[in-house]
Amino acid sequence: MVTKVHISSPEDTGEELFNLQIVQEYERAVIFRLGRIADKKPKGPGLFFIIPCTDQFVQVDLRTVSFDIPPQEILTKDSVTVLVDGVVFFRIYCPVSSVVNVTDAHEATRLLAQTTLRNALGTKNLAELLSDRESISQSMQESLDEATDHWGIKVERVEIKDVKLPQQLQRAMAAEAEASREARAKVIAAEGEMNASRALKEASLVIAESPVALQLRYLQTLNTIAAEKNSTIIFPLPIDLMQNFMSRK
Asked: What span, in angstroms and rounded, lies between the C-alpha atoms of 206 and 150?
């Protein structure tokens, strides 16, 4: 926003000696006097004047600007086609460079961000793209900041918003994840069976060393069955007695 105040000559001939201009705190004015930048620096904030016949000025906004990177179709390093979009935050820190060194600083930054996104993601495979967004965003920010420094622009932040995969690839990844979970479940079940068999083997060795332990196990089993209100009655029979009958035969 620029406020103009016209000051005329004392004779009041209608000719303007100079114009007073006012720019806001977040704005600067780059003045061209006879085609050259006046004082080699921008004016503002506040009040300044221009000579109507010789001066022209360009108003520059120093506030942070954000824009969305349109979805870009990108071929990853492992030959997977994905759609990726993002958002960029930047500001102008040198008004003179943003006016002198580039025709349209905002549009140039937008186009450069799209190209940088395609180039950066084209060197990554799909797994890196899905799991390492933070480092990719940091790399893009550094690359953009370096490229736009000559234009007087500071890139503050770059974020990847969304990665869209083809439907067939999504189904394939879901099937792969399900198969991996089933494989892990089978491995865990097999390890459990192996640990249980080892425990049973150790228990059998302890019982073999002490026949009384087997009788105690019988009594414990009988107590468990009786707790379930079952009509079946089980009487534990000593193994030693059975062995005597078998030896007689």
From this structure: 83
Residue 43's contacts (CB-CB under 8 Å, 6 or more residues apart) are 21, 23, 28, 29, 30, 31, 57
Q: With the C-alpha atoms ordered 182, 183, 185, 186, is the resulting torsion angle positive or negative?
A: positive
Prediction pTM value: 0.65
CA angle 122–130–163, rounded 5-degree value: 75
Residue type, 63: R
CA-to-CA dists, residue 155 to 46, 61, 134, 184, 234, angstroms: 27, 15, 16, 45, 83
Q: ∠ at Cα 237 (235, 242), nearest 5°? A: 150
Is the distance from CB of 65 to CB of 148 less than 8 angstroms? Answer: no
Q: What is the pLDDT of residues 200-226, one digit of tens each?
A: 788 777 777 776 766 677 677 767 766
Count CB atoms within 10 A of the CB of residue 29.
Answer: 20
Cβ atoms of 206 and 213 closer than 8 Å: yes
Residue of 70, 106, 75 whose CA lies nearest to 89? 106
Tokens in use for 120?
Answer: 């950066």
Side-by-side strand order, sheet with 46-50:
2-8, 16-23, 46-50
Q: List helix spans (H) across 93-210.
A: 95-100, 105-121, 126-131, 133-148, 167-209
| pLDDT (tens digit per residue) in 10-60 | 455 555 567 888 899 999 999 998 888 888 889 888 888 888 888 899 999
Q: Compute CA distances 149 → 26, 28, 94, 143, whole Å.
A: 20, 18, 9, 10
